[in-house]
Amino acid sequence: MNQLIKNNSKTILLGISSGISLFIINGGLGIFKNISNYILNCINEKIYYQIDVDSKDKSFEWLLYWLSEHESVKDSTHLNAETVYNNIGKNPKVILVPSVGQHTIKYKGKTIWISRIRDSTFDMGSGAPFESIKLSTLINNSSAVNELLQEAMLLSLNKDIGKTVIYINSEGSWERFGNPRSIRSLDSVILNNNLKQQLLDDIKSFITNESWYRNRGIPYRRGYLLYGEPGNGKSSLINAIAGALNLDICIVSLSQKEVDDRQINHLLNNAPPKSILLIEDIDAAFKSHRSQVDLDSTNSNQINSLTYSGLLNALDGVASQEGRILFMTTNRIELLDNALIREGRVDMKIEITNATKEQASQLFSHFYNLPQDSPLSNQFSSNFANYQLSMSQIQGFLLKYINCPEKAIEESYKLLPVNLS
Ligand SMILES: *[C@@H]1O[C@H](CO)[C@@H](O)[C@H](O)[C@H]1NC(C)=O
Ligand SMILES: *[C@@H]1O[C@H](CO)[C@@H](O)[C@H](O)[C@H]1NC(C)=O
Ligand SMILES: *[C@@H]1O[C@H](CO)[C@@H](O)[C@H](O)[C@H]1NC(C)=O
Ligand SMILES: *[C@@H]1O[C@H](CO)[C@@H](O)[C@H](O)[C@H]1NC(C)=O
């Protein structure tokens, strides 16, 4: 310790001289405090390694996210729920992170002390208080802190960026399902006319239009029904739209036994932020409904079940702050009850038909990477009538002739119904 004081004798002297006036006033307490603080700081610097991560820096978010995933943080009893965004500022997620104060974690066998500090000043932009997180460890173990920060960055960058996260309902709440899917490009979904663009524009306008709804007291939600024969890309369209708008997808499975009226209401109105709710094959879920006037009145012994009226109520429920985007799909719109798809529950009905000649030609061009309206593509599509074949049927056929568009054209008669049997 002598060594320490000698090395820094200049500063110590300054400390002493400014301490002298205090000494006179405070009867010696001041100078003692000054010197002991100073020495403590010097010792700290020799023993501890500390990094400050400021909330103004990107790494702050990365670190919070990393902490939320870390085992010893999960076990902690003092957590804050916070919303974080991915690196393009979208797809917010709520995570649990250490709250303001002191925490200790183990990382690679090293102890790291975490001190989260909230400033009294505010960021004018976001209105949030400035914060910082101090990470300290023994100086000998400093590399652990550096590695931690590096790992935090990679975790955030590799996670969910350019991916669509899929959620499924499990025991009445939302759970991530599998690894996030790569985004499907909207170009790969070939629809009739302008449908794709219309749908995209409609959702975009909805997303940016919250005040319009709030000002008029209209619930901030929008429902879409995609209907038409199977194999024409209803699900692919939803995946691609989610990708294009950077939304996640929550698949509502109504067939799960545990889903009852209360849960469906909770699920539909508490989807993770910035996500699309998807109920596939809605006709199948309520096949029996039409013959049984209402399920709950006839089946009184089935206490926990989903009823048709329960679903309707959930559809009408109070949408969350974020607004609710709901997609339903069906292969057989004629089986659906009018009440289910009336205006307000379904705002836009889009028919996804079998392939038109135009779509067949576009699919051919896309598949073989040919220009739109190339002679080969048109020759191919001229062999069929509109709506005769499904898109997946044509695609399946082309897959047999991956490198040979001419051969595909030559053999295309095999796709026609007479030859299918
Ligand atoms: C520092 O690292 C050593 C060697 O890995 C380890 O044994 C020790 O427990 C660590 N100390 C702290 C306080 O983490
Ligand atoms: C750090 O390691 C050195 C030797 O590598 C050792 O002499 C020193 O006591 C250690 N310091 C602490 C604080 O553990
Ligand atoms: C907002 O939504 C309403 C109703 O759908 C629509 O009439 C209006 O044009 C939208 N405004 C914008 C800016 O998209
Ligand atoms: C649509 O395509 C499917 C599969 O190729 C076919 O079975 C069905 O008859 C087609 N629909 C119409 C209206 O032609």
CATH homologous superfamily annotation of the largest domain: P-loop containing nucleotide triphosphate hydrolases
- Read across the widest sheet, the strand sequence of neighbours is 9-8-12-13-14-11-15
- Unique ligands: 2-acetamido-2-deoxy-beta-D-glucopyranose
Number of strand segments? 15
Overall 3D form: elongated
Head-to-tail CA distance between termini: 94 Å
Mean pLDDT value = 79
Q: What is the class of the largest domain in the CATH system?
A: Alpha Beta
Tally of contiguous helical segments: 18
**Sheet with most strands:** 7 strands, mixed
What fraction of residues sit in β-strands? 15-25%
Which features characterize this protein?
421 residues; alpha/beta; Rossmann fold; 7-stranded mixed β-sheet; 4-stranded antiparallel β-sheet; 18 helices; elongated; disordered N terminus; binds 2-acetamido-2-deoxy-beta-D-glucopyranose; Mitochondrial_chaperone_BCS1
What is shown here, in short?
The chain is of the alpha/beta class and 421 residues long.
Q: If you had to describe this structure to a student in words, what would you say it looks like?
A:
GO terms for molecular function: ATP binding; ATP hydrolysis activity. By secondary structure, the chain is an alpha/beta fold. It folds into three domains: 111 residues, no CATH class; 171 residues, P-loop containing nucleotide triphosphate hydrolases (Rossmann fold); 63 residues, no CATH class. Strands 9-8-12-13-14-11-15 form a seven-stranded mixed sheet, with helices on both faces. α10 links the parallel β12 and β13. The protein is elongated, with a radius of gyration of 31 Å. The termini are far apart. The site of one 2-acetamido-2-deoxy-beta-D-glucopyranose has 7 residues, from loops.
